[in-house]
Design a protein that fits this description.
It is built from six helices and 28 strands. A hairpin with a 5-residue loop joins strand 23 and strand 24. It is elongated. The relative contact order is 0.12.
């Protein structure tokens, strides 16, 4: 607006000096600066005086209690006026936090670049506070590729395996008997070899607003994970032990007077075990009925993994039954991921599961670094609590027993009616992309 030949007042001055009515509308096309219209070389500029007003600044009124206050002078991009054809002035934020008119030649005024992040930008961690700011990253990576790239065969000597023949599964994990990511050598020629985590490792991941530990990959390239509690407000997974690493506790089966109660289901797989009921109820509420930022159920990110409730019999007498997992992990310390019997394979597709969720197996615990009747507090499955696996142990003394992980970190066979922890297990799809590094302070986060 021109009031006289010697005086020009620009729109921002009219809005902010006279009427105190800021606006984000840019009225004239020739005042719009972008890379596309070639007025900018790069997509960066300055804040406008109107934006400073929306933030909390007012002309000639000090304000040290808003986020733009720095105690120094700062340029805005908004012209103020031209006075007597000599004094060409622009708005700036003063050292007191208000804004005022200063000549464009004024030296010592700060420059604070302004950019605009794209819609849908992902953040790595933080809550926006000055102590834990949002950390933005545009870098995503295939979790499967991360795992495979950092692996080594498990039947050879390597950095954390001193034996020339590879990992000794009769011993717990350690700096000399497995610590890292290993390729199961018997699957190395498969389309998707199995890779598993062992020992003290950085395998933390946030999915569906919960913390999980990565167990291994699957034969379809999925990523099998075990529940490990809730993240902190700044997306860290620091609750690595204690009862918060489980969704609660339960008997494996409240009934316990017959051998069949080692089953995840029993009576021709028509009746659910106590623990299956609790796990699937939790999953329905916390995974299936919850949606991500795009409105998709978290179940869409999960593969229909084959869970193995290995009820195979390795030996039996009139009053005693030894199941396959006991034979492998108690007698011979030779774990396997093979599920021998079709009837012990549980999936949604074969209608033995309502949802694609189950429990870890005793064999997976062995691959991770735990063994029977020996503690291990230095591997990722140690929580200081008893919690159930899905693997039958035996039937003797008129009681069915199922493997659990005991409080000291090793494998144990316990009566099914005991009240142990529940840690759900599921498998993410092959094509999952993540940000982060897998540490407890910077866990992988599913994009």
């Amino acid at each position: 607006e021109s009031y006289a030949q010697s005086y020009i007042s620009y729109g921002a001055r009219y809005r902010l000096f006279t009427n105190k009515t800021p606006s984000l509308e840019c009225l004239q096309d020739n005042d719009k600066f972008t890379v596309a219209n070639k007025k900018l070389t790069y997509p960066v500029g300055l804040i406008t005086a109107d934006e400073a007003a929306y933030a909390g600044g007012v002309y000639a009124t000090s304000n040290e209690n808003y986020y733009l206050y720095t105690g120094t002078l700062q340029w805005t991009m908004s012209p103020s006026g031209v006075f007597d054809k000599v004094n060409i002035c622009t708005w700036l934020i003063t050292s007191s936090g208000n804004f005022d008119n200063y000549g464009v030649e004024y030296n010592g005024t700060g420059v604070r670049p302004v950019i605009s992040l794209k819609q849908g930008i992902k953040y790595l961690s933080g809550n926006g506070s000055k102590e834990t700011p949002f950390i933005i990253t545009s870098i995503t990576k295939s979790l499967y590729n991360v795992i495979t790239t950092n692996s080594v065969l498990d039947n050879i000597e390597s950095e954390h395996v001193e034996s020339e023949t590879g990992i000794d599964f009769s011993q717990i994990s350690s700096d000399t008997n497995g610590k890292g990511i290993y390729e199961l050598h018997t699957t190395k020629n498969d389309e998707y070899p199995i890779y598993y985590y062992r020992g003290e490792v950085d395998n933390n991941i946030i999915f569906a607003n919960f913390c999980w530990k990565i167990i291994r990959t699957t034969s379809s390239g999925g990523i099998k994970i075990i529940y490990n509690g809730s993240p902190t407000s700044d997306n860290k997974c620091t609750n690595i032990t204690g009862p918060n690493t489980q969704i609660g506790s339960s008997p494996y089966n409240e009934k316990y007077d017959e051998a069949k109660y080692v089953g995840y289901k029993y009576d021709n797989d028509e009746v659910d075990s106590t623990i299956k009921t609790k796990i699937e109820s939790w999953y329905k509420t916390n995974i299936d009925e919850k949606k991500d930022a795009n409105g998709k159920s978290y179940t869409t990110y999960i593969e229909d993994l084959e869970f193995c409730n290995d009820r195979s019999i390795s030996w039996q007498s009139e009053s005693t039954i030894y199941h396959g997992p006991k034979y492998r992990n108690y007698d011979y310390r030779n774990p396997s991921l093979e599920c021998l019997q079709g009837e012990d394979k549980f999936t949604v597709a074969n209608k033995k599961l309502t949802y694609p969720v189950g429990l870890i197996t005793a064999d997976e615990v062995a691959y991770a670094g735990g063994i029977y009747a020996e503690g291990n507090n230095a591997y990722y499955l140690y929580t200081g609590n008893y919690y159930w696996t899905m693997s039958p142990f035996d039937f003797h003394e008129n009681y069915p027993f199922v493997f659990d992980v005991h409080a000291a970190g090793g494998l144990n066979g316990d009566r099914v009616y005991l009240n142990n922890g529940i840690r759900p297990v599921l498998s993410l799809n092959y094509n999952i992309e993540v940000i982060g590094t897998g540490t407890s302070n910077n866990p992988y986060m599913v994009k």
